[in-house]
Amino acid sequence: MKTEQLLIELEQLVEQAGYTIRKEKGTFRGDSCVMEGEKLVVLNKKKPEQQQVGLLARVLQDKPLRDIYIKPAVRKHLEELWDRFERFKDSEIEELDIDLD
Q1: Which CATH class is domain 3-90?
Q2: How much is the pTM?
Q3: What is the per-residue pLDDT across 22-50, written as a single tens digit (0 to 9) for each?
């Protein structure tokens, strides 16, 4: 699955998990938060798609997803990323070499 398509799929999953996604430009990494009771994920449009995928995967990592259908190819990528996050727990997401194609 191409990175662009995976990004779209993960954005949909994050929204189904109850988050609003905002894409902004700036000098920030991006993250999730709760602001005025609204669950929010802010993505930096200037960051590579692979880093945006990593951020969305990290947001989904600890969320209950059993009631949300996840396509098998997307689930496979998520599980690989989650495994990588566990192995490199002390590393920043941007430092991980995420090859999705």
Answers
A1: alpha beta
A2: 0.84
A3: 999 999 989 999 999 999 999 999 999 99
Contact 36, 49 (CB under 8 A): no
Q: Where are the domains of the chain?
A: 3-90
The Cα-based distances of 77 to 40, 81, 85 in angstroms read 23, 6, 12
Length of the chain: 101
- The CA radius of gyration of the chain, in Å to the nearest whole number, is 13
Which contacts qualify for 11-20: CB closer than 8 Å, 24 or more apart? 11/56, 13/56, 13/60, 13/65, 13/68, 13/70, 13/74, 14/41, 14/56, 14/59, 14/60, 16/68, 17/59, 17/60, 17/63, 17/65, 17/68, 19/59
